[in-house]
Amino acid sequence: MTSGLGWLTRAAAAVIAASLLTGQVGAAGTLREATIGEPPPLDVMLTTADVASTIGRHIFETLYAWDSTYMPQPLLADRDRVEDGGKTIIINLREGVLFHNDKELTAKDVAASMVRWGKFGARGKLLMAAATSVEATGKYEVTLKLSAPNGAWKNLIADVNGGLAIYPEDIAEKAGNKPIEQKDYIGTGPYKFVEWRPNRYVEVEKFGKYKPRTEKSDGYAGARIANFDKIRFVPVPDVGTRVSGVQAGDYDYAEMISGDLYDNLNKDKSVQVHRTNAPIFGLFFMNSKEGILKDNYKLRRAIQTALDKSQALRVAFGPKDLWNADGAIFPKGTPWYTTAGVDGYSPHDAAKAKELAKEAGYTGTPIRLLVSTNYQAHYDEASVFTRQLADAGINVQMMVVDWATLLKMRGQAEQWDIFVTHHSFAPDPVLLTFINASYPGWWDSAEIGALRAELVNSSDQAARKAVWDKIQALVYEQVPVMKVGDAYTYDVASPKLTGLNPNGPVFWNVSTK
Amino acid sequence: MWSYALKRTGTTAVTLIAASVVVFAFIHVIPGDPIYVLLGDTATPDQIESLRHELGLDQSIIVQYLQWVAHALSGDLGRSIFFQAPVLSVIADGAETSALLATMTMVWVILIGIPIGVIAAVRHGSWLDQCLSGAAMLMASVPTFWVGLYLILIFAATLGWLPSSGYPSIFDGGPGNLRYLILPSLTLAAPNAALILRLTRASMLDVSREDYVRAARAKGIRPWQVVRRHILRNALLTVVSAFGFTFAALLSEAVVTETVFALPGIGRLVVQSILRRDYPVIQGIILVIVVIYLVINLIVDLTYRVLDPRVELQ
Predict the structure, then answer these.
(1) Fewer CB within 10 A of the end CB, N or C, for chain A?
(2) Which residues of chain B neighbour A39 with C-beta distances below 8 Å?
(3) What residues form DSSP beta bridges with A67?
(4) Topology given in CATH for the domain delimited by A31-256+493-512
(5) pLDDT single digits (tens) A426-469
(6) What's the gap in Å between the CA of A391 and the closest CA on chain B?
(7) What is the pLDDT of residues A121-160, one digit of tens each?
(8) Around Cβ B300, how many Cβ atoms within 10 Å?
(9) Chain A partners within 8 Å of B179 (Cβ)
């Protein structure tokens, strides 16, 4: 036995010595990003998962891209013109753009991608439901014909998230409704796909033949220059480990750090804190199809009247730098900002809420609130609101499930009265999920139906803004959703990184000092 | 011994079939749907139904089960819905991490647990024994995620001696990559070494009261030889059976450690696959874990015989 133990001792010592001697952290020219988890397949056209978009933005490109003020600017497109009262859109492409398989981008690739996006893309229907034809009308010219004008068309094709990423024609045509396979992850981006090791990393490498735009980089728009040879996206689910990893130099960038660490990290010289410029916002969806809240707008207003949104935001996000209790759906400073209806945002008046609930005929029936613990903020907000509603005599029954279950249950109208989610920053109202009548919640009253048509079909910005003002007022009258408030997520990066993008974690134009 | 091994393999097969039915039934009973996870927030019912049909998830559970068994018998565990890769290759990749982590952990467990357990037993009742037993209690009680985060903070973030997380395969970067597993294996070893320490101590105290130990001492054999040859060797029987169980449990229990250290192991893979409802991967992993448990138990039973010739295998 002694000799056995002796052998083990020697083996362990050898392993440790070998480990320490040959250790080398990170390779030169490789940027390592710690993501919150494993992405689903990188067919960005089909999925709206943020992890997939973060990686996919480096590989795939769109015809337009948002600048730092979220205005769409040409990316693969060179110029465009709109004819026939907005019903014909003609887009001319940049010439000489290569896919990662060395084939040149042509109008046929764009047309095929547009057709697939219209049929199966997560946001494809928003534009393509009204499409009567998509054609390559020249080697570098695509013509999209619509049955009615769409004032948001450029915004709808300006990001990869469930959006119109441009794939080679043959790949778009053969893929159909199934996610494209890894060998077909071929785009026109500054980085090309190398490999995906499940649970370990997704690796992309610099595409040597990438032809950047000549305009100055601004947000996702303008020139994209790959300064790193490779980027590795490493799933690191624990937030503490993501932070320690950047502090230790094992990662160069870590995303989605929790609010409780914000103050300390701001003082920590071993990292730089990078707050995004576009807030996300929590949404409590009311069931407009079935149940006690179906069309009882007064009861919905009673619920909102009882709430103090600041309290929920403080619990969910921590320091005041990271949240803003504002009822306007679009934040101040954006072209869509309006104060219409916001008086109803967060009154925190239990007495008035009780009165309204009584007038609405509410007798204490439990209201089923569907929430997931996968997103801590959702659960925190729901817990605070449940308490506040109890003070107003409104009986909420929380149904706590995991995210996969919530996604399924929320599609079944008989299962819930309110469900909790959050919304990414949207640069145009048509991208808001609750405007979409087929999104769970199913807000489709006569009033919103008319306003929605007006918003989509108008191409005049001033007219569209006026319609949006009316829609926001209606959101506070019919309460299809309750906005919790704006929350600013933040990431941490190595202090050596410069050129970080204000729109989010993309690493072209990023370099080391 | 061989007929015993053969008989055990037969019962193993029955256990496997039972386990596969239970696992298949359970994961399909829990609500949730991989298609929603795959397509994200804005997928329409049409898109969901069409992809479900494409992946064969709209067939009855019995048909799906029989298809899975037929493929599994030919060595094909299917394709991961999420990774779009063969389940076997996904598991093999995770198995490398888990096997190395469990092995390294066992090395720590043996190096720490047995010698200290022996010292505590020999110095039974002394202040040294009290201190060591107290330390063992503490190690067994502190949550592994706490130990893990503190080890990262001290040895990676502050001192910079070891990497904080992740594990690049040794096939990619050579044995030097084992340094990624030092902190996680120490984290995982802490509670298990404490248990082995206590078990060694208790078992040695039991054996030391036996008549043959008293006889050995009466013969004038030196005290350390009595401990080594007569007490420890017999006491190890109990400890070895605990090794087998501990090793098998490490493969599936390492979830928290794997999450804290972002290790691409089997434990984290199975939890993530459950959250994503990646049915083929869950089924595949459970099958592999059941096989590992059964094989290790078989090995432990056979090892008894080697350690103690009096044991008869039936």
Answers:
(1) C
(2) none
(3) none
(4) D-Maltodextrin-Binding Protein; domain 2 (3.40.190)
(5) 889 998 999 988 889 999 999 999 999 999 888 888 999 999 99
(6) 33
(7) 888 988 999 999 999 999 999 999 999 999 899 999 999 9
(8) 17
(9) 16, 19-20, 22-23
